[in-house]
Amino acid sequence: MNIVLDVGNTYIKVGAFEGEELLWSQSFSEMADVVLKIEALQPTYILISSVRSDDALHTLSRVSKVFYVSSQTRLPIDIVYKTPNTLGSDRIAAAVGSTVLFPKQNNLVFDIGTCLTHGIIDSDQKYYGGSISPGVEMRFKSLAHFTQKLPLLEVPESLVEITGKSTAESIYSGILNGMQFEIEGFIAAYQNKYPALNVLLTGGSAPLFEKRLKEYIFVVPELNLIGLNRILNYNV
Q1: What domains are defined for the chain?
Q2: In DSSP terms, which residues pair with 112 in a beta bridge?
Q3: pLDDT category, 91, cuts 50, 70, 90?
Q4: How far apart are CA 105 and CA 86, in angstroms?
Q5: Sign (positive/negative) of CA torsion 114, 105, 73, 22?
Q6: Is CB count within 10 Å lower at the N or C end of the chain?
Q7: Where are the beta strands (DSSP E) in 87-142?
Q8: Which residues are catalytic?
Q9: Is the pLDDT of residue 132 over 90?
């Protein structure tokens, strides 16, 4: 059994694999719980992708051989990026995951989590980069933080109208419809260059936009874990 960790800004996602098969996945909020879980499993290898520093991660080396995704990691794709050492390992994992599901095809991947990111990887397995902007909760919080009168609202579960008829409805429309149009704009721009294009969504807020988007998309919650496992197998 191999274990991969996708350590994000908010949650830690853990996946267990046998070969290319995902056995199970689980999300944690505390690293200490992750360490206890993995210590009990005694996996063969561990691969960690992390966007933050956490001393508890280093204790996993007592359990088994640990690898970290970095700019020096051998990858099954080519990175065409001006500053590859600054490219987040979560974005790399999502790109690689898309090639596992749709090999040698043009894939556009959106990760809608703490941030909204997208990345484009073509049929030659070349990753060119993409964009980074604030995620759903970050937009709600920043709007309330940087103004005196606008309230901090909860993220709604239902669809919202384009025309807000109150301050709250206007905020919902601006954030959620604005993000939808942002995503659709990127999709339309890439379709001009890549007529045959797969669009994949992952991240905690991806379900919010699954039914909003007009384009046919694939929502894959475990995309980063699938990508990390491919990177691990590629290296060991």
Answers
A1: 71-134+179-235 (3.30.420.40)
A2: 116
A3: very high
A4: 25
A5: positive
A6: C
A7: 107-112, 115-121, 126-134
A8: 90
A9: yes
